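Subject: complex prediction, re-run

Hi both,

The earlier run crashed halfway through, so I resubmitted it with identical inputs.
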Amino acid sequence: MNARLTRLRQTLARRPLLGDGATGTQLQQLGLLPGACGELWNITQPDRVRQVHQSYLAAGSDLLTTNTFGGTSCVLAGHGADQRVHELNYAGAKLAREIAGDRAWVLGDIGPYGGMLEPVGDDLPATVELAFRQQATALLEGGADAILIETMSDPAEAALAVQAARAAGAEFIIATYTFQKAGADYRTLMGTSVGAALAAVLAVGADVVGANCGTELSLDDYVQLTAELAAATAGHPLMVQPNAGSPRYVDGKICYDESAAQFAATVPRLNTAGATLIGGCCGSTPAHIAAMAVHFR
Ligand SMILES: [Zn+2]
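This time it finished cleanly. Structure:
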């Protein structure tokens, strides 16, 4: 294991780590059109991607997430860019590494591949595993310290992604799901319980597990969800990255209501509930991260 990764494990054993905030909504502020391929910006607008990473580093993030959420061949195919998996992911990891240096760790970001595995859908596990493995390989070659698999709904897909990242050589793998409220507790979009979802990725060797995003979940919900997650981590570290509230449309623009102060106030509650890697998802900004940072030093 390289020295930076050893330091990541040692630091995490000593204190909570601060993630970063949204990438997509930040790039949209810099001109990325909704629905456009953000990963292309790793090549065409590298300065704007650097600017997002730089603003999170300056805000105090310990972890920078690469701009590669939709970087599988499956998602890139929708933009006619499925032949550019290695180029776009490698470039994305390099940009984050460049800004992070040795001051932050780089999480190579992998989101859902965008389809349905058999038997629910038609996609074969081997095909999807290969897509995740190609992406993870490029992220690691570009300088990612760890792989972050996030916004997952299907435990079979999440487990495949963990296995693919491991096969690509990742030594530190984080797997987080998006949950929604289901009566008194929380389930993924596929209806999987918290316990079953985490067990699926822990069984194939995820190092860290948790939750991110969730358009209906308030910060209070996230505190409750975190307690439920903490009971199912089997001793592994827990990561949570809530949205800045539910997205609302105001004058044709997406708005998020949870303020930086509300995020900051929630950090100790998430930490007490068991989370030791804490960041933000959609709608969270460098201002949110900067406000949270007081709890991480
Ligand atoms: Zn999100």
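The chain has a mean pLDDT of 96.

- K.
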